[in-house]
Amino acid sequence: MIRNLLSIDDLDRAGIERILDRARSFAEVAGRDIKKVPALKGRTVVNLFYEASTRTSSSFELAAKRLSADVVSIRSAGSSVEKGESLRDTVQTLSAYAPAAIVIRSPYAGAATQVAGWTDAAVINAGDGKHEHPTQALLDVFTLTQALGRLEGRSIWIVGDVLHSRVARSGIIAFQRMGAQVTVCGPPTLIPRQIEALGCVRQTTLERLREADVVYVLRMQHERMHEAYVPSLREYTQRYQVNLARLRAGQVVMHPGPVNRGVELSGDAIDCDASLIGAQVRSGVAVRMAVLYELLVGVPALQAVA
Ligand code: NCD
């Protein structure tokens, strides 16, 4: 049993599989009329979001509520963070409520690890700058195993702005841990120089995209770009947009959201039958329930929904 989830590296393959098993039982709860289990009754979960979020924040909130926890959700906009309160002081203030878990999203790499040093609560990294987004990687693995079965030997292409993507970093580690082969593809300026050290292959054109079983598209992350990485979005779109003309039958398409429709992914590809984008969002709740359960309760999966 682990105490915090700061990086996907905190989990070995057995740990990932344990969470996936539990997420499967929680996905069944989502199909019931009353979508609640009492696992975290009387415990408090604090969601602290210092950066824009729709899917991650709503699914963490729903996950904690479906486990019957008391939930406090704070966003930097409208909180004392705007008045200049430091992250450390905010965490100390919220610790007065003795939360069982703190979920943190921050624009700074390493923020979740820092928070873990300041609180007794279990800390979950919901995205720290360009660094990691471990629960996204888990929900992506969950979605893929639901759609394809085992990932062993599958070819997963991650296409787009890999340089600024915490989703890519966590995904590369998780997909490989589950036995898949990962190729990253994008303009050379948007692929980190040492990426092969993570065990993946680099491509700078989509020519061999047909070899992929899974095409995982990333958002162009304007908010993290402080210089020009591509000549123009139009040129990017011409060379790297994933669209139906570039896909073949049998491939599945993923994207963590939010999508720049018509930039990295065409509208028809977003909405096609091969798209798992909606399934990814659905998986988010069950997987985050499983992560909260793993950290705060941690008994075998069979008892998870008793
Ligand atoms: C991602 C994020 O915030 O890291 N979105 C998400 O969590 N679903 C990816 C992105 O913003 O492009």
How does this model look, in words?
The chain is an alpha/beta fold and 306 residues long. It has two domains: 8-131 and 284-304, Rossmann fold (3-Layer(aba) Sandwich), CATH 3.40.50; 134-280, Aspartate/ornithine carbamoyltransferase (Rossmann fold, 3-Layer(aba) Sandwich). It is built from nine helices and nine strands. Helix 1 packs across helix 5 (134-148), helix 1 (13-30) crosses helix 9 (277-296) and helix 5 (134-148) packs across helix 6. The model is unreliable at 301-306 (pLDDT under 50). Residues 55-56, 127, 133, 136, 166-167, 219, 221, 256-257 line the site of N-carbamoyl-L-aspartate.
Topology:
Elements: H1 13-30, E1 44-49, H2 55-66, E2 70-75, H3 87-95, E3 101-106, H4 111-116, E4 122-128, H5 134-148, E5 155-159, H6 166-177, E6 181-185, E7 201-203, E8 214-217, H7 233-240, E9 252-254, H8 267-270, H9 277-296
Parallel strand pairs: 1-2, 1-3, 3-4, 5-6, 5-8, 6-7, 8-9
Helix pairs in contact: 1-5, 1-9, 2-9, 5-6, 5-9
Characteristic terms for this protein:
single chain; 306 residues; alpha/beta; Rossmann fold; five-stranded parallel β-sheet; four-stranded parallel β-sheet; 9 helices; binds N-carbamoyl-L-aspartate
Write a concise synopsis of the structure shown.
This protein has 306 residues and is of the alpha/beta class. It contains nine helices and nine strands. Helix 1 (13-30) packs across helix 5, helix 2 crosses helix 9 (277-296) and helix 5 crosses helix 6.
